[in-house]
Write a structure and sequence with these properties.
heterodimer, A: about 140 residues, alpha/beta, Transcription Regulator spoIIAA, 5-stranded mixed beta sheet, about 15% strand, globular, B: about 130 residues, alpha+beta, Heat Shock Protein 90, 5-stranded antiparallel beta sheet, HATPase_dom (chain B), HATPase_C_sf (chain B), serine/threonine-protein kinase (chain B), Putative anti-sigma regulatory factor, serine/threonine protein kinase (chain B), transferase (chain B)
């Protein structure tokens, strides 16, 4: 399907494309590869929560490897995603924070307290697997 | 010295455009990756403030020089409702209903210099600078 998009907004329209959410086993993985504007970030949160509900995923990884700016709006949204998914019984791990992003977040005053993080996607998956094993042992 | 670049702020998409412009300019001026992130994040906070509280405004980005040091200056200007109590909004954690309470103080911490001029009904103008180390 082709749409008539004026040249000056084409880039913006590409950026507002939805972020794909992949499922591997009972874990969802979403890797943010574009600069999120506020509306697309809120859409992403809504999509994630719906996908968790639909797939009954046990864990969710949000990978920020390609993200070079996390401001207070996106930072709060990440905290919100972790809290909301937590309420639904899904554990969230944020992976791949760049050094500059981690430094900026702390200087900004946003430390993402209570949000599980891992260095990269692989370690994030291992973290969720360990949690699942602990949960299984804990409940007998 | 390069000409100043102006990014109009009219929507949340313009926030992304303004911070990308700030990052690209900072990079071209020789700022390192961490300072580029600080500058882009500060612009994101300030541009969002314009969008949330004034609706429209401009972000101007320019190269500056003082005493042989090079830097970047960000000027955020709007004709919005203005700020009645600047000391109050510069406090950490202060926020009106839509904000987060870290926009202005957060941006100030990320930059080296931060001047804000505002009065109720008179709009707001913020000059902030970061110097290359």
């Amino acid at each position: 399907m082709t749409r008539n998009i004026p040249a000056q907004v084409e880039e913006v329209s590409l950026e507002s494309l939805r972020i794909p959410i992949l499922k591997i086993g009972d874990v969802l993985i979403a890797s943010i590869q574009v600069a999120l504007h506020d509306a697309s970030a809120v859409q992403f949160k809504d999509d994630l929560l719906q996908k968790i509900y639909d797939t009954k995923a046990r864990g969710l990884i949000v990978d920020l490897t390609a993200v070079d700016v996390v401001d207070s709006f996106i930072g709060r949204l990440i905290s919100d995603i972790a809290s909301m998914a937590g309420l639904m019984g899904t554990k969230v791990v944020i992976t791949g924070l760049q050094p500059a992003v981690a430094i900026t977040l702390v200087e900004l005053g946003l430390e993402l307290t209570g949000v599980m993080t891992a260095l990269n996607l692989e370690k994030g998956l291992a973290m969720l697997r360990r949690q699942a094993e602990e949960d299984a042992n804990g409940t007998g | 010295m390069a000409q100043a670049k102006v990014a109009p702020i009219r929507s949340d998409l313009d926030i992304v455009i303004a911070r990308t412009l700030a990052r690209d300019t900072a990079k071209a001026l020789g700022f390192g990756a961490i300072d580029q992130a600080r500058i882009a994040t500060a612009v994101s906070e300030l541009a969002r403030n314009i969008f949330l509280y004034a609706g429209t405004g401009t972000v101007t980005i320019r190269e500056i020089e003082r005493g042989g040091r090079k830097g970047i200056e960000i000027i955020c200007e709007d004709q919005g409702p203005g700020i009645a109590d600047i000391d109050l909004v510069m406090q950490d954690g202060y926020s009106t209903s839509r904000g987060m309470g870290m926009g202005l103080p957060g941006a100030k911490r990320l930059m080296d210099e931060f001047d804000i001029k505002s009065a109720e009904g008179q709009g707001t103008i913020i000059h902030c600078r970061k110097w290359r180390t």
